[in-house]
Amino acid sequence: MKAWVCENPVGVEALQWRDLPAPPLTPGQIRVQIRAASLNFPDLLIVQNKYQMKPPLPFVPGTEFSGVVSEVSEGVKGFVIGQRVAAFGGLGGFATEVCIPAALAMPLPDGFSFEDAAAFICTYATSHHALIDRGALRAGETVLILGAAGGVGTAAIQIAKTMGARVIAAAGSDAKCQACQALGADAAINYTTQNLRDALKTLTDGRGPDVIYDPVGGDLAEAAFRAIAWRGRYLVVGFAQGQIPALPLNLALLKGASLVGVFWGEFAKREPSHNARMLGELAAWYAAGKIKPVLDRVLPLEQLPAAFARMAAREVIGKLVLTQV
Predict the structure, then answer these.
(1) How far is residue 198's CA from residue 201's CA, in Å, rounded to a whole number?
(2) What is the DSSP letter of 129?
(3) Please, what are the domains in the chain?
(4) 45-69: pLDDT as tens digits
(5) What is the C-alpha to C-alpha distance for residues 309 and 11, in angstroms, rounded to an integer?
(6) CA 61, CA 40: separation in Å to the nearest integer?
(7) Residue 195: what are its φ and ψ, rounded to 5°?
């Protein structure tokens, strides 16, 4: 097999595309021949040694992928050779094959492309868990989505609209704002040229958004939280800007607001039956045309460094996907 190997996590430039022995199949696992893999922000952090998980060296990065089952270990049920699957496996996705626990694999229904499937689980599961489970979003409410042009942001727009909410998208350029509105956002704010808090007051007639979806963190967080509606829910999804904000907690008191943590990965481990039902609902929404991953670029797997460079430059709208024949 071939894989991108990280022997020294000092950055993307240290990754090597080379031959490796095929990984052994252990009990409870399936072997997947990878057809497509997507980039998520943790993929960049982990090769820079900045992620919370520090895998032993060397390792093959790549958290999310799709492909075809080529081998099933003894005792595994529900999977057969030739079956199409997607997975959020943590590691190993930037390769031609991988062995993963069968429990991590999602069978793909007919009509689900490998490219869409590789860009599906992390972003849509995160956004569904955030908005519906943790944020209790209801039809008619207003949701502000920060970083709305990214992978989780574009997924959040689609899920919020499916739920009947009004969506205000906030992004870092006019082109990204236009892309969000084309995807269904009711309004958009370019936070590099507009004052976020003032724009939110105007767009909500001074009431503020009921739910704030924040995968960005950094210096946008306090301005957004100050604009939240009475009984609003602020969803802490991630810190793509790199800075973990320190919010004045008196704001929660004054607005009767909730500060809600969102950790889909831990939810999936602790509540697997609930997670499985959620993924089933998302697959049904995909089949019905209610949601569909936004693919910024589809590149050959060998061009992983170029994909990382585009992500690092924050030029991506939606998800970057890498494929191999």
Answers:
(1) 5
(2) I
(3) 2-120+293-323 (3.90.180.10), 123-263 (3.40.50.720)
(4) 899 998 878 999 999 999 999 999 9
(5) 11
(6) 11
(7) -80, 115
Residue 99: enclosing H or E segment and its boundaries?
strand 97-101
Q: pTM here? A: 0.92
Average pLDDT, the chain: 94
Written as six digits, the tokens of 309 are: 């460079």
**Closest alpha carbon to 82 in 35, 152, 121, 12:** 35
Whole-number Å distance between alpha carbons of 279 and 273 = 10
Helical ranges in the chain per DSSP H: 41-47, 114-118, 121-128, 151-162, 174-182, 196-203, 220-226, 250-255, 264-270, 272-287, 304-312
Residues 224 and 247 sit within 8 Å (Cβ to Cβ)? no
Identify the CA nearest to 166 among candidates 145, 194, 193, 195: 145
Whether the bond into 9 is cis, omega within 30 of 0: no
* Distance (Å, whole) CA 156 – CA 148: 8
Token readout for 238 is: 């991630």
Q: What is the DSSP letter of 268?
A: H
Name the CA radius of gyration of the chain, rounded.
20
Confidence at 242, pLDDT banded by 50, 70, 90: confident
